[in-house]
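Deliverable D5.2: sample structural annotation.
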Amino acid sequence: MDHHEGQRVSRRRLLTGVSSVGLGALVTACAGQRPVTTSTGETVALQAVTDADLTALFTGARTCTLTASTTQGPYYFDADKIRSDVREDKQGAKLRLALQLQDSETCKPIPHAVVEIWHCDAGGLYSGAVAASGGGGTPPTGPPPTGTPPTGGPPPGGDQDLEPTDDERYLRGAQVTNQRGTVEFTTIWPGWYRGRTVHVHVMVHVGNEKTLTTQLMFDEALNTEVLATQPYAQRTGRDTFNDNDSIYEPSMLLKVTKARDGYVGCIVLNADPDHDGA
């Protein structure tokens, strides 16, 4: 199949498992707002992992301005992981992410959309790309030559899907928005790598369209607090913060509150399904 901008066209396999289904099948099913069947014959309802009322979390985080789009970065691929808890065995400060998706023109929630997240672990490594994303974390000896990516940072490229080089799939996953347009993930606070501030990647699919690709970021006071704890504190030499990051915008900041067992971050994402720029 030919690749067209904004469309999910690559072939994907269904995962084995009682409640898992490949992202490609999920996106197709969500376009028609119908249930999907896994490779084991189990029917999976199209709903977010929780129906908890998240209204209070979004107080002060609501806006109706089109969310800024960014490059998807060099470490994106379809991980075929439809799940809310993406941590696997990765250690770090627990982070519950609550994301609400709405139409940037009408401010109404967008249900039945697929929301993917992916980010690095506490050591700055991305699953599926451990070798490519490794190498940083020592005190910098000076700026890299012009045009050279920082050690441990992303390789050249930005919008080409990655061909995974290992079987790891930690800190990657997808969920489906419920009738309130919300999804919820349980993950860890991301680590860092040279050349970028601390961030989480997000990709939204409405119907068969890749509608929004953006990034989420954190207040630097909280980054300082979390990165001073283990296992983050094992690494030194962080060189890029929000104020000198090439992608950061204040609108990308999550609203973060502390919980008994970690942190809760929320944000309202405003997408433009008809791509008219409004």
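Annotation notes: The longest helix spans residues 23-32. DSSP finds three helices and ten strands in the chain.
The annotation will be released with the project's public dataset once the embargo ends.
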